[in-house]
Amino acid sequence: MIYLDNAATTKISRDAFEAACWAIHDCYGNPSSLHKAGTEAAQMVAKARKQIARCIGAMDDEIVFTAGGSESDNLALRGIAPYLKENGKTTIITSQIEHHAVLNTCKVLEKDGFKVIYMPVDEDGRVDIEELERVMKIFKDTLGLVSIMAVNNEIGSIQLIDDIGDLCQEYGVLFMTDAVQALGHIHLDVNTSHIDLMAMSGHKIHAMKGIGALYVRRGIKLEPVITGGGQENHLRAGTENVPGIVSMGEAAEKIIKNIDADRAYYEHLRKLFLGELDRLGVNYVVNCSGGVPNIISLTLPKCESEAMLLLLNEKDICVSAGSACTAGSLDPSHVLKALYLDDQDASCTIRISMGANNCSDDMIKTANAIFESVQQLQAMM
Q1: d(Cα 73, Cα 197) in Å, to the nearest integer?
Q2: pLDDT one-digit tens code per residue, 296-306
């Protein structure tokens, strides 16, 4: 099997797997317990917190563990909302291509009296900085938060987060970013980019599913979404998922260490793949240029994406038609629509996303399988 759906989830790495197994079998105490087994578990959680903090230039106590990226987004938005409202800062700016964990939560906040502005993006999936500043200037009196993802999960576009962070600092508003697809693929520094809240996920970086983290800058107050005990600095009640946490710590440390080499490798695989498509004469369009190299949004005109996925699956090749969160939806991707693709082209788009386990042979075989599948679909038409 050739697995090219790493933007949906990645295979757990050997280091992360071994760390999780050790935590399950040998470090099974409750981190809140005061006995030896508990303190050993607490020490492992503290180590992972430090590992993740170092990856983004944060302090250890600014990392809050959650169950994944969606929970991190929800904790950030729902948690900050009461304090924004209390201070009359009821305007939020986000983008049209955010993950549904942000978009759907913003829809809920609109019902609670917030005004949410959804910024458009250009053909490369980027928010225009001058237009963003213009909108920020108009709403400066009530603007409390700008939430724009660092890397898009469907097309791989990279936002100008340093510039956005500078604007937020200039206007005195909070800056939140969903970095689920960014961690390990672009360099992140919460201080350089003036980031106040940042969502991360373990299963996108070769750690376990069911674990994520939220960076919360010191001094920022959040209301917890899950209440109960005082775990995670009173922001996320419940016994910590120690195996997941230690797996994420190990995976994050490794992926950050290899970030530049990995990027060069993905660029090589991407070039090889597109070059083979060109050699075979496949008619295609790549959506978004200049994004992370490991994500390729590929429109194959007149080739329905669901049919393409089924044909590729028969050839033991796993790709997707977009975000895993919207799999099975009949509606065109909101991300592709925001790029000005019409419904037909949007419904003929697949996403190929590479991971650490992919090789050159995978890309050559996949390009040939796409060529064969396009031929099959054209023959059927």
Answers
A1: 9
A2: 999 999 999 99
Dihedral sign, Cα of residue 105, residue 107, residue 109, residue 112: negative
The residues near 231 (Cβ < 8 Å, ≥ 6 apart) are: 31, 32, 237, 238, 239, 240
> Are 282 and 270 in contact, with CB atoms under 8 Å apart?
no
Residue 306 CB-density burial (10 A; 0-12 exposed, 13-18 middle, 19+ buried): middle
DSSP code of 325? G
- Work out whether the CA dihedral 37, 24, 256, 254 comes out positive or negative: positive
Q: Which residues are catalytic?
A: 325
- How far is residue 302 from each of residues 29, 81, 347, measured CA to CA in Å? 56, 44, 9
Burial 271-280 (b: 16+ CB within 10 A, else e): ebbbebbeee
Alpha-carbon separation of residue 331 from 102, 107, 344 (angstroms): 19, 18, 11
Cβ atoms 242, 27 nearer than 8 A: yes
Residue 224 banded pLDDT, cuts 50, 70, 90: very high
Alpha-carbon gap, residue 43 to 170, rounded angstroms: 39
Name which of 25, 1, 21 is nearest 13 in CA terms: 21
Helix (H/G/I), strand (E/B), else coil: 54: helix
What pairs with residue 349 in β-bridges? 299
What would the mean pLDDT of 281-307 be, rounded to a whole number?
95
The pLDDT value recorded for residue 325 is 54
The CA–CA distances, whole Å, from 280 to 2, 20, 364, 366, 371 equal 20, 44, 11, 12, 7
Q: In whole angstroms, give the CA distance from residue 317 to residue 314.
A: 7
What phi and psi values does residue 213 have, to the nearest 5 degrees? -150, 150
Tokens of 259: 């970030």
- Tell me the pTM: 0.95
Q: What Cα–Cα distance (Å) separates residue 303 from each residue in 311, 317, 332, 375?
A: 11, 17, 14, 10
pLDDT at residue 195 in the model: 98
